[in-house]
Amino acid sequence: MTELKVLHESTVQPEEIDALGHMNVRYYMTRVDQANRSMLAEMGIQEEPGKAFRRLDTYTRFHREQFAGATLHTLGGLIAVEGSAESREVNSYFEIRNPDNNQVAASFILRSCLIDVSSQQVLDITANSAYSAYSANNDNSSEYSVLVPEHGMPRSLSLNDPARISLEELEAVVGDDPTPGMMSGRRKNVVHADDCDSDGRLREEVDLMFVLHRPTTGDENELGGPPVMRDSEGRRYSWAMIETRSVVWHRPMEGEIVLSIGADIANGEKWRQSRRWMFAEKTGLLLGISDSVGLCIDLDARRSIPMPLDVIEAIERSSLPQFA
Q: What CATH number does the domain containing 89 carry?
């Protein structure tokens, strides 16, 4: 086993701050994507014209919020390379740390692969010498190999394969009224041309959730992030993500409408676990599933608080624990 390597350095920019006053989750993933590309390139696995890296499964655990001006280091290493020679998948671990206080801001477990952009087929990565050197020595003594530390392991979410469900099955049990805040209810948005590659498919670095939650000028939540609400005592509150997991099977094409249906599947006094299923609206193809665990926080005191009673009652009325 080796120490995590520093693969990317950055500073939190003012435009990366969302409505909750801290760096938005999408900018964590921007940094991890860059670090993942750097690490794979060091192994000799590189994107070329017609080839792209795809994140198939992304687990994130958020530890400490980060604010404008913070210096961040993204570190990472290789857990394992799995699959047949024709369809290798790379499992990796990353951390984003604030070097000024040596605290972990967030940790990530990724499963990714290299694909042919046009055919969407997973490519063989065994031909390059750097990968072959790793493969021949796949006894965890490679310079890239790391173990996932305890603080990087999932706390609430599972890394098991999520059960797939059809659009028809889901629409039969999900109501029309969204639960306040977070991930419940229906959303839809169209895939823009500038989100797509030269083949007209959503670029790998553009997250499906960004397509669905893309803020527009004049929106109440233009800065992005969960909505800011007020409880009966007048406190500003919202939900801070503490864990997320995204599994993607397909990428939509330019002009397609992405439909998502979300519901809470578990909750406690201060937290809620939500799942969002994303479909191509016209065909009903399940594109992916996104899970999140949000902690209710007082935005001014910057501490967790019990969820308002009306929110808990709404969650319990529409919860779908059978799909957890």
A: 3.10.129.10
Token pair listed for 277: 């299923």
Contact 255, 192 (CB under 8 A): no
In this structure, are 190 and 319 located in the same domain? yes
* Model confidence band, residue 265 (pLDDT cutoffs 50, 70, 90): very high
In Å, how far are 74, 173, 267 from 36, measured between CA atoms? Answer: 10, 39, 33
The verdict on 23 and 125 lying in the same domain is yes
Task: List CB contacts of 78: < 8 A, sequence separation 6 or more.
Answer: 39, 43, 90, 91, 92, 93, 134, 142, 144, 145, 146
C-alpha 279/C-alpha 111 separation (Å) is 21
Question: Which position has the higher pLDDT, 286 or 124?
Answer: 286
pLDDT at residue 136 above 50?
A: no
173 and 320 belong to one structural domain: yes
Tell me the pLDDT of the chain averaged across its residues. Answer: 87
Pair (53, 137) in one structural domain: yes
For the residues 200-210, what does the mean pLDDT come to? 89
Q: What are residue 136's phi and psi, to 5 degrees?
A: -70, -20
CA distances from residue 268 to 162, 228, 264 in whole angstroms, order as listed: 22, 20, 11
pLDDT tens figures, 147-179: 999 999 999 999 999 989 999 999 888 866 667
| Domain limit, last residue, from 153, 170, 188 | 153
